[in-house]
Design a protein that fits this description.
This protein is α+β, with helices and mostly antiparallel strands. The protein is built from four helices and eight strands; from the N terminus they run ββαββαββαββα. It has a two-stranded antiparallel sheet. Strands 3-4 form a two-stranded antiparallel ribbon. β5 and β6 form a beta hairpin.
Length: 139
C-alpha cells in the first residue's frame, strides 16, 4: 500500500501539483528513515485553519513546542488539535499519537515481516521475535 502526503501549498489544479507530492511506501523503509520524510502540520491554529508548515517528521516535537505551545512536563494535560482530532492526552504521548493515528507511520520487522502501527509495540516485538537476525546486522 502506498500513501501520498501533500508537502506543499500548491493547488491540485496547478501543473506543479504532481511534483509537490511525496510518496511513502508502507512496506519500506525501516523505522528510522520513515521519520525523515516531510509532512504538513495539520494542527489547528485556533482560527479553524490548519498550520500547514512543512517539516521533517523528526522535527514534529520541536515544532509542536515552539510553534503551537505544547510545553510542560510529560504528564501535562493536552488536547490534540491535529486536523480536528480534539482527543485529550498527556503531552508525553502527543507526538507518538500523531505519528500512529494521524500519519499512519508503521514499523516493519525486517526479521519476520510483521508490521506494527506503533513504535513501542514494534520495540516490544523485537525483544521476543523468534526469527534470528540475518548476518548479525541491524534489524
Amino acid at each position: 500500500m502506498t500513501v501520498i502526503y501533500t508537502i506543499g501549498l500548491v493547488s491540485p489544479h496547478s501543473s506543479r501539483f504532481r511534483s509537490s507530492l511525496l510518496t511513502i511506501s508502507k512496506k519500506a523503509p525501516s523505522p528510522p528513515t520513515l521519520l525523515k520524510d516531510k509532512i504538513i502540520c495539520m494542527w489547528d491554529r485556533g482560527d479553524g485553519l490548519r498550520c500547514r508548515d512543512v517539516l521533517k517528521g523528526d522535527a514534529l516535537s520541536l515544532h509542536l513546542r515552539s510553534v503551537h505551545g505544547c510545553r510542560g512536563a510529560e504528564d501535562t494535560a493536552l488536547t490534540c488539535w491535529w486536523d480536528g482530532c480534539a482527543q485529550h492526552m498527556k503531552k508525553g504521548v502527543v507526538v507518538r499519537h500523531i505519528q500512529d493515528v494521524h500519519l499512519g507511520v508503521t514499523y516493519p520487522c525486517r526479521r519476520c515481516g510483521v508490521t506494527f502501527g506503533g513504535k513501542s509495540s514494534f520495540e516490544l516485538h523485537l525483544l521476543g521475535c523468534s526469527v534470528p537476525k540475518k548476518g548479525g546486522g541491524p534489524i
